[in-house]
Amino acid sequence: MSVVKVIELIGESPDSWEDAVRNALDTAAKSVRGIVGIDVDHFTAKVVDNKIVAFRANIKVAFKYEE
Length: 67
Fold this sequence. Notes:
about 55% strand, about 20% helix, 1 helix, single chain
């Protein structure tokens, strides 16, 4: 039997939502072992002067729980 823990992160990128997801996952991978999947919860963007200046992705990262 295995147990999976889930954490929530927000990634950001000036280029795209896909890059925002990758940035969040890459950051998580630096300190979390055993990542088994992600769930993209939703996307948002920061707007300045009617232009998107930052793409944001809220993700949930699942990883194997180790005692």
